[in-house]
Amino acid sequence: MEISEKMMLEVLDKAKRYVESETDDNFRTEVGKLLMKKDKEELYERFYTSLAFGTAGMRGVIGGGTNRINTYMVRKVTQGLSQYLLSFTDPSVVIAYDSRHYSKEFALSAALVLSANGVQTYLYDTLHPVPMLSFAVRNLKCTAGIVVTASHNPSKYNGYKVYWSDGGQVTPPHDIEIAKLANSVESKDIKDMSEEDARRSGILKSVPASVDEAYYAMVRASIRRPEVFALSHIKVAYTPLHGSGNVPVHTILSSLGVEIETVREQEVPDGAFPTVKLPNPESREAMEKVVALAKSIKADIVFGTDPDADRLGIAIPKDKEKTEYVLLTGNQIGTLLADYLLSTRKELYSGDKKAVVVKSIVTTDIIRKIAEKNGALMRDVLTGFKYIAEVMEYVDEHPEEKLQFLFGCEESYGFLTVNDVHDKDAVSSLVAATEMMCYYASKNKSLIERLDEIYNEYGYYTERVFSRDYEGASGKEKMKSIMEKLRSLDKGSELAGRKIKEKKDLLFDADTGLPKSDVIIYTFENGERLVVRPSGTEPKIKYYIFFHAESSGRAELENKLDDLLKEYQEAL
Q: Of the listed 151, 244, 428, 517, which one is catalytic?
C-alpha cells in the first residue's frame, strides 16, 4: 500500500505523542529508534490505527505503538474501564495474569490506574488461570475482573480481557459502554499512582489465599463419583505448555490420590514458549512431548493446557499396552464429557431441575442428540464462551424455571463442567475427564471404546477446520472482500462444487434466533454444513466443515475426509 505524505505526517505526530506518553522505557526507546531511523513502513504499521477495545477486551502484538499492546495502551483502556466502573456504587476489580511477556507488568499498570481512580483493586501475586479469575470475581463479589493473557496465541502476542460481576466476559451493554470510554481516552486523562501509595492506602490489595482454597474445594465438590478415584492406581501425563495451569492441576489431582507426571521442559512458566511453535493443546506439535512422556510412563490419560489454562487437550491410549496414543479433537472431548455428565446425572440425580447443556454453533451436533435423548435442554449460542456464560446467568436469575446448568463446550477445546466459573475451565474439566476415565476403567472399558459406542448409537459425526491469515492493514480489506463475495451466494448457488440448500447470514438475516454476528452458515444438498467466521481476536477467517454418516458408513467417510477437505480449501 502506498503511504501518502499526509498519512505519514499523521503517523509521525502520533508516534511523537506516544513517546511522550509511554511510561515503559523499552517501548518508548523502541519507537524512538524508529523515529530516528525514519522507518516509514514500520512506523506506519505501528501507528496507522489504534488497538481497539472490542467486545471483551483487546489483543495484539507486544511492542511500542498504538497498534501494539504495551503499557500505554493497557493504561489507556483501564482509564476508560475505571470511568465506567465509577458509575456503580463501591466498584471493585480483581486482576490475574498468565506467563506471557509483560503480563505481570501490564497487570500492575492496570491495577495502579484503577487504584488512582478510587476503584478497590485486588491483584494476584502470582500467575493464575482464567478460570480462577472468573471464580475470584464471584467469590470476592467484585464488579469486574481483568485477565492479562493472549490465551493460545504465539509468544509475540498479549491481551487484556474484561469480566463482569457474574464471572463471564463482558457483554452488552457493559462492553459497548466500556469500549466507547476506553477508545476515547487521551493520554492526559490517564490517572496513576505508585504501588507503594496504593498498597499503603488499602485501595490495592493482594488476592487472599482463601480464594484459591475455595476454588480447589469447589472443584473437588463437583466430582460426581468420588469413589472411582480409589478403584485403581491412576497415572496422568500432563503439560502446562509453560503456562499457568501447573499449580492448580497438581494441587487438585494430587489431593485425589492421582499420580501426575509433568513434562519437565514445559513445566516452568515462560512467555517465550521455547519448546513449541504455538502453545495450544489443539496443536499436535504442542502435545508431542507430553505424548512421549505418556508412552514412557504408560499413562492412563494425557492432558495439555494452554498458557491461561482455559483450553484443554486430551490424548488417550489406543491399546491396553499403552504403546500408542490418539489425540482427541475438541468435539470428541465435548462428546465424551457430555455423554458422561448426562448419563451420570440421569442415574444419580433425584431433583426436579432440568439439565441445561450449551454449545457454540460451530460445535458438533452429536451433542444435541445426546442431550435430547437424556432429557436435557440444549442451547446453541454464538462462538465465544461469554455467550455460554449468558445462558448460565439466565439460569441463575430464573430459579422459577427449575433449570440447572450442566455442561458448556466449544469445539476449540473449551469446556465447562462447574457452575461457579463462567468461562471455559481446563482445570475443572481435566478433573471431570479423569473421573470419567476412572469410571469407565472400573467397567473395564476404555474411552476409545466408549466413543465408538456413542457413534454406533447416534451416528458418526466429524468435522474439519481450517483458517486463512490476513495480517496488517491490507489484511482487513482482504477479509472484508472475501466475506462480501461469500454473502453474494444464495440458495441454489454452488460453493466448493456443492449446491447450497440453505444459507443463514447472522449479520443480516432477522430470523436466525441468534444475535447479529459476522457469520455465514451454509447447508448443502449433500448434508454437509459449512460455517464461515472471521475471528474476533485474530486477523484470520475460520472455516468449519461438518460431516455426518450413519455408523455403517463411518469407514467410507473417514477414507474420503482428506479429499473432501482439499476440495473446500481449494475453493475457499
A: 151
